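Table S5 (text form). Sequence records supplied for joint modeling of the two-component complex.
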Amino acid sequence: MKRTLRLFALGLAVIALLGWLVLGANRGWTRTSVAVKTVDSITGLEGIEYQNRFVPGVELLGTSLLAAGLLAGGSFLFKEQKTT
Amino acid sequence: MKKPLLAIITLTLIAGTALAAPMTFDFKDPKGVNNAVFKLDAPLEAIQGSANGISGTVTFDPEKPAATKGKIVVATESMHVPNSMMQGHMHGNQWMDVAKYPEITFEAKELKNVKTSEDSISADAQGTFTMKGVAKEMTIPVKLSYLKDKLSQRVPNMKGDLLVLRSTFKVKRSDFGINPGAPKDKVAEDIELSLSLAGAAAAK
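The corresponding structure-token record, covering 288 residues in total, follows.
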């Protein structure tokens, strides 16, 4: 059980970190849409369109790492299984 | 001899008046490019979003830019931020209360300090800015670019002129009752608004 919890915590931390990095390493809050800028060739005005895209923020990364830490910490509550 | 001369003079005067007549530009953009960007830069959090529900009309005369007047309307429902939860809060009654206050408007009465350059006109627009039911007299800097006969290049099968309007100015959140009790280190007191708009006047 101890080992399983630690492996699960490690997996959660790695997935959270990799997911955050791959999906844009956004240092702000989680976004559910992303602004895409376009330029109107006649007027020169910059238009903004929003595309639905999930970009995890630091609060999601922090929560996942905290959960992983709690799982790893919780593993110390279990006794080591002795092998004979 | 006198009658034809009089007729020519009259026609010339009528044509001259028609050419100098102010044009009305409609700012409901069929291409959906028109937008108003809002920025709140607080020490702990920066919020940026935009609104594209723009409408309104501006009367502009290239010969008399100081006489420019009109009204620009931003639909509050179209205000968008990249976080859907934040957007829900922003539209709610504590913040913009879009159900009760569906529009933000600026009604320009006249332009002052008009400076004309080769391709644009810069001036200070005097008028009434209304947000969340609070109206304030304000002077905001504007930059206008009159693009004669350019409408057909932007909207096929339509002939006419374009008027590009740009403006960046700041308003205070508390002046308009936008959650004045909210901590200013998280949600900035100053709201920077940037308008990028194009209006069309179709040829008659």
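Note: DSSP finds two helices and two strands in chain A.
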